[in-house]
């Protein structure tokens, strides 16, 4: 179940986590991030504009647009319908995973404990989100999980920044990281696309 999400993670070291208020500028934002070297984008379904933003961004050349904050079956269906090519969730429920599988939407489901990681692995998810990364113990915890569960690779998200991303990316069980720092709300609001491209380029250059 994780081949596509593994490929999404392989595109760049960072998946921008985007909260979009204005669908009208979503394509510009996507172009700025893609131009900076971050093609995989997660649009969180937390704003009324999110689905329209996914529709706009899905047309941007070079972008690979996913929907985040998928909590329910309805979210999965709406994301798929809007053109999302992958889904992200802070956690998972059986119903959510069933819906993602029924709708053919590759998922990056969230795990916060070894039992969750084990359950997801059993269902075929060998790439998982580790959420919230910093709140759950960060690099030390992921490193510890890597000993008994080395076959799962993670996308830590939540509190990840340019400052700590490299220490996550250095772990063998980290595939990529997620973070909102590459698209600060004020820069999006003011349309500072060159500035966002610069932040993206910095993130894209992180070693792994
Ligand atoms: C989220 O789902 O909001 C992500 O965890 C983003 O977290 P961040 O703002 O700490 O990068």
UniProtKB/TrEMBL annotation:
Q: Which SUPFAM superfamilies does the entry link to?
A: Aldolase
Entry annotated with the keyword Chloroplast:
no
Tell me the pathway. Carbohydrate acid metabolism; 2-dehydro-3-deoxy-D-gluconate degradation; D-glyceraldehyde 3-phosphate and pyruvate from 2-dehydro-3-deoxy-D-gluconate: step 2/2
Tell me its family.
Belongs to the KHG/KDPG aldolase family.
The record's gene field reads eda
Q: Which organism is it from?
A: Rubellimicrobium roseum
- Pfam families from the entry? Aldolase (PF01081)
GO terms for MF: 2-dehydro-3-deoxy-phosphogluconate aldolase activity
Q: How does it assemble?
A: Homotrimer.
Q: What is this protein called?
A: 2-dehydro-3-deoxy-phosphogluconate aldolase
Q: What is its EC number?
A: 4.1.2.14
Catalysed reactions, as listed in the record: 2-dehydro-3-deoxy-6-phospho-D-gluconate = D-glyceraldehyde 3-phosphate + pyruvate
- Alphabetically ordered keywords of this record: Carbohydrate metabolism, Lyase
Indicate whether Lipoprotein appears among the record's keywords: no
């Amino acid at each position: 179940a994780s081949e596509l999400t593994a490929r999404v993670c392989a595109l760049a070291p960072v998946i921008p986590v985007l909260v979009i208020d204005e669908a009208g500028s979503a394509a510009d934002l996507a172009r700025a991030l893609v131009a900076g070297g971050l093609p995989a984008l997660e649009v969180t379904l937390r704003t009324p504009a999110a689905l329209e933003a996914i529709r706009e961004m899905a047309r941007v050349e070079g972008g690979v647009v996913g929907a985040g904050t998928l909590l329910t079956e309805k979210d999965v269906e709406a994301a798929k319908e809007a053109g999302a090519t992958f889904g992200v969730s802070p956690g998972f429920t059986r119903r959510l995973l069933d819906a993602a599988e029924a709708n053919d939407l590759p998922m990056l489901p969230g795990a916060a404990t070894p039992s969750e990681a084990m359950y997801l692995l059993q269902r075929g998810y060998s790439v998982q989100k580790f959420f919230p990364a910093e709140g759950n113990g960060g690099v030390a915890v992921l490193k510890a999980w890597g000993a008994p569960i080395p076959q799962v690779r993670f996308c830590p998200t939540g509190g990840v920044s340019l400052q700590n991303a490299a220490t996550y990316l250095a772990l063998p069980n980290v595939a990529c990281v997620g973070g909102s720092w590459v698209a600060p709300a004020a820069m999006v609001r003011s349309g500072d696309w060159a500035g966002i491209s610069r932040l993206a380029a910095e993130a894209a250059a992180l070693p792994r």
